[in-house]
Design brief:
- This protein is an all-alpha fold.
- 65% of the residues lie in helices and 0% in strands.
- It has 26 helices and no strands.
- The model is unreliable at 1-18, 390-394 and 594-598 (pLDDT under 50).
């Protein structure tokens, strides 16, 4: 496959004395460390809190087997069908918990280490694709410091992307080594298949590997065979992916079993909406690859319901022109064609699967982690060819070395400056609102942070603004109801809980809090019925039986309250239900209760 830039032997006065690719590779690793060393001081942010800090499932090896039978968010939404099946990612979190507990320094250290490993892997891959060590080093340098990777390196839970990448590239490279016909071919193929299976269990995007291998076989030229006929190329490519396709089928079956279905898209997102939205997403990702500034966690990129020149026609025109340019580049160079496969194929799952994402959450920089590999290799090829007019030298010309250095330093500075927003939630969510003023999720997250800081007035204002931006979002209604409930505004909380139930009737928590709201409003029969519905949806919901016990005790149903308190203590022996159970048993025995009903 090593078509593309061919190493020459001539040097001239413009050529650096030391091997340029060795210097560039060392610079890639060094600048990557410089770009991200500041993140070692950062806190747990965003999904780190529910996924790590408040997730008992990654804090004990007792739960490890369950990673293969549940979705990632099952500890928070046990009654919801999930779309994220990532057992290897959860095992990574468990390993980090075992090593570091809740000390974020260690977690950030392993996340940066995973990214450094990816820099080395990109060099390995790019050298194979281009046949040019200097081009490979340039690609690795660009990949290591590109700001588009901030979300995956500065944010601990973003490590799912580097984990996927390490296994994904490893699977491809061992396949390529086996395909070369070198010794230990069977062993290398087995290692490739094992790494592919682990990559699938890390993140769904790995499913594109068979297509990547197919494309690699199509591009492959064997000088002994000469130019093969199309039918022969198709046959060879199809045979190559058979074992990978078999693993894919097994993975999809296991995933469907764990998630209770292959995929669970939003019922309101139609195929037409997806097609109308794709051009604006392609434009968004292209801009961020080429000009990664400014970046944030949230963006004002939403579903396109009514196409206009700005949100559909112009982005579609750009996508078509970009596709044509990539086609021309692929026709001129097999190395470029291979890089384009790495750019396009890993981007297909997040583009084609946007129907599973909530409104305001369809575009994230982390989805460019794997595709950026192909982009960086393309840029490296272009830089080498521009400087050498189609050839390549074993060492890097000084002018080219300087150009790469300027680009690398600029990207490193851009990464360092923008990384500060990931230091804590307050900075991250303020940045989110700044970057996406029309995004309801950004405001909701900032409101939650203000609530955690006891700034209730600001939190309520932000929650209300988020609700006004998207009144039909379940999260906006539920969290506004919960916030009002938590400060004793029960009449204000009730309509938001009810609206949340209308939007998403399968979430148990909203029934539970609505039941407690109705209890505080004195509507005990409604409260008991609603709390029972919560228990039907999630029998082991934390506090659910305790809450129903309080309602029944207020109604005077002491025997029913006793049973609910006892059920709560089976789930959580340390629950406050123990004191209530003692009080109810004293009342049933005709004695004096130990305390008043809470």
């Amino acid at each position: 496959m090593g078509a593309g830039l061919q190493a020459g032997t001539a040097t001239d006065q413009r050529t650096a004395r030391l091997p340029g690719h060795a210097i560039l590779l060392a610079a890639a690793l060094l600048l990557t460390v410089v770009a991200y060393v500041g993140t070692l001081q950062f806190q747990f942010v965003y999904d780190d809190l529910p996924q790590i800090v408040h997730n008992p499932a990654v804090q004990s090896w007792h739960f490890a087997a369950g990673y293969f039978t549940h979705h990632v968010w099952s500890h928070v939404y046990p009654t919801w069908p999930g779309n994220y099946y990532r057992p290897v990612f959860l095992l990574w979190l468990l390993l980090n918990w075992t090593a570091f507990g809740l000390q974020p320094l260690g977690w950030h250290l392993t996340t940066v280490a995973a990214h450094l490993g990816m820099v080395a892997m990109v060099y390995w891959l790019a050298r194979r694709i281009t046949g040019d060590a200097a081009a490979a080093a340039i690609a690795a340098l660009l990949f290591g410091v590109h700001p588009i990777h901030l979300e995956t390196v500065a944010w601990i839970s973003g490590v799912s992307e580097p984990l996927l990448g390490l296994l994904f590239i490893g699977a491809f490279m061992f396949y390529a080594k086996a395909r070369d016909g070198q010794e230990h071919r069977a062993l290398r193929l087995m290692v490739s298949l094992l790494l592919y299976a682990l990559a699938l269990l890390s993140k769904e995007t790995a499913i594109v590997l068979p297509a990547l291998i197919f494309g690699n076989e199509w591009l492959r030229t064997d000088e002994r065979e000469g130019r093969r006929r199309t039918s022969e190329k198709l046959r060879a490519a199809a045979v190559a992916i058979v074992p990978y396709a078999a693993i894919s089928v097994g993975y999809l079956a296991l995933r469907a079993f764990a998630l209770k279905g292959a995929v669970h898209p939003d019922a309101e997102v139609t195929p037409a909406t997806v097609l109308l939205t794709l051009p604006s997403l392609v434009w968004f990702y292209a801009r961020h690859l080429v000009a990664p500034w400014p970046l944030g966690l949230f963006y004002d990129v939403g579903y396109v319901l009514q196409p206009t020149a700005a949100n559909f026609v112009l982005p579609l025109l750009f996508a078509l022109l970009s596709g044509a340019a990539l086609w021309v580049a692929a026709r001129r160079s097999r190395a470029a064609a291979a890089a384009i496969l790495w750019l396009v194929l890993p981007l297909l799952p997040p583009l084609g699967g946007i129907a599973v994402f909530a409104a305001g959450d369809i575009a994230h920089d982390r989805y460019l982690y794997l595709p950026s590999i192909g982009f960086c290799i393309l840029v490296a090829i272009a830089l080498r060819r521009l400087a050498n007019k189609g050839g390549a030298a074993p060492a890097v010309p000084v002018a080219q070395f300087a150009a790469v250095g300027v680009i690398g330093l600029a990207l490193t500075v851009a990464t360092m400056v923008q990384s500060v927003y990931w230091a804590n939630n307050l900075l991250l969510y303020h940045r989110g609102v700044q970057m996406a003023p029309r995004n309801a999720l950004a405001r909701s997250h900032l409101a939650t942070e203000m609530l955690a800081r006891n700034d209730i007035t600001t939190a309520l204002r932000l929650y209300q603004e988020a609700h006004d931006l998207d009144p039909n979002a379940w999260s906006s209604n539920f969290i506004l109801g919960y916030t009002n409930f938590s400060i004793g505004r029960f009449r204000e909380a009730e309509p938001y809980f009810r609206r949340g139930i209308e939007i998403t009737p399968t979430n148990a928590n909203q029934y539970f809090y609505l039941g407690l709201t109705l209890m505080n409003l004195g509507r005990l029969d409604e409260a008991a019925s609603t709390a029972r519905r919560a228990i039907q949806l999630w029998d082991k919901g934390p506090g659910f039986h305790y809450g129903l016990g309080l309602i029944l005790q207020r109604k005077g149903d002491l025997a029913g309250a006793r049973d609910q308190y006892a059920a709560e203590l089976k789930i959580d022996p340390n629950s406050g239900a123990r004191q209530q159970l003692a009080e109810v048993e004293a009342l049933l025995a005709g004695g004096t209760p130990s305390s008043r009903t809470q």
